[in-house]
Amino acid sequence: MLLNPFIGVNADGEGKASAEHTVTLKEVVVTPELPADAGAIQGPTEVEEDGSIELTIAEIEGADTYKWYKDGEEAQNTDSRTLTVTAVGTYKVAGVNADGEGKASADHVVTLYVAPLDPPAAAGTITGETEFIEGGEIELSIDEIERAET
Question: Which pTM was predicted?
């Protein structure tokens, strides 16, 4: 771009004109400052039926808010680094600021917790007669077995 010369003026008259001056406009590239990459989600990997667990992420540098995902869909956009989980699924989180969303964390899979079975206690000693006549009957018994249904 070519600028016209400047001329200084005062009460005594006009001064000498300056030389023409060329100004070049340069393209300014603004690089967005996205939040840093999210680290690993911390928290349990199992949730009980009708229960809840909490997942957390360490502070993500440059993030104003945190966007949580469940099974690839946005679950919650919050300023909290903690998410209360009540359902099984695959969770991840990313930091967000005015320039956009940073790289999300690795998947954190939450499965249903199934309590181990509580098997019956060991059977006690069978008591009763130890001899019988072929075709006859004898009666045997055992004390009740704890947690046995039959």
Answer: 0.61
Parent domain of 107: 46-113
Q: Note whether residue 88 is domain-resident.
A: yes
Using alpha carbons, select from 82, 77, 72, 71 the residue that is nearest to residue 44.
82
Residues β-bridged to residue 93: 68
Neighbouring residues of 91: CB distance < 8 A, sequence distance ≥ 6: 41, 55, 68, 69, 70, 75, 83, 85, 107, 108, 109, 110
**What is the tens place of the pLDDT at every residue in 45-76?**
999 999 999 999 999 999 999 999 999 999 87
Q: Is residue 51 part of a domain?
A: yes
Question: How many structural domains does the chain have?
Answer: 1
83-93 tens-digit pLDDT: 999 999 999 99
